[in-house]
Amino acid sequence: MRVIPIEDPQDPLLRDYRDLTDIALRRVLEPEGGLYIAESAKVIARALAAGHRPRSVLVQEKWLADVEALLPEETAVFLVAPEVAEALTGYAVHRGALAAMHRPPLPSVAEVVAEARLVVVLEDIVDHTNVGAIFRAAAGLGADAVLVTPRCADPLYRRSVRVSMGTVFQVPWTRLPEWGEARGILHDADLHIAALALAEGAIGLDEFVACGHDRVAVVFGAEGDGLSRRALEAADSIVTIPMTGGVDSLNVAAASAVALWALRR
Fold this sequence. Notes:
CATH 3.30.1330.30, Alpha/beta knot, 21% strand, elongated
């Protein structure tokens, strides 16, 4: 590897890591520039295991040995002090290592769901923490794939990757088109579309599970607004988690874990 000590946070070699707290900027640059950021040696290891290629790595001395053991020989490694990392990124890099990774091309929806029996669909969930938590639930509770709508937050944004503990690399996922087209694609794959929502006529989760649908795509909506009218119209069933104590619903990440546990195979 090429270990390059850098003392100046304005060094142009570090441009991939600059101002990582500017969410709006990263949302534009990462997908269009073919870049995402993996944070911590554990997450970098999972990205590499999934076949993703590093463009470079930013690391502090304390974690250099851990990172060196993971990386291909040709990888450029920028060695910086903690204060340089913080000045560069805009936050304290507690996990000691960041990797700028080449973003792989997304597969088609048909390819991702071809063999899937339990699919998670995220409609317009813009909170990166929730997206990452749902991916972790999907990986841990046996979902076969995740589909995200055009306006959903990027699963490969740094915070999503970190909260997911790198499971965004092990669960197949891709972008879903708008519902007019998406409904047909999911039905062509023999998936029963179940929208999780508070709506008149919704059936309880236990009742839905008892129906025994062989292949299910369960749809979760954003905090506050919930699912769109188009999502509800596309659904074959509307499902709710019965609640007590005067509480009408759970955080979407918690709801996903409950629903996926109930639907596990």
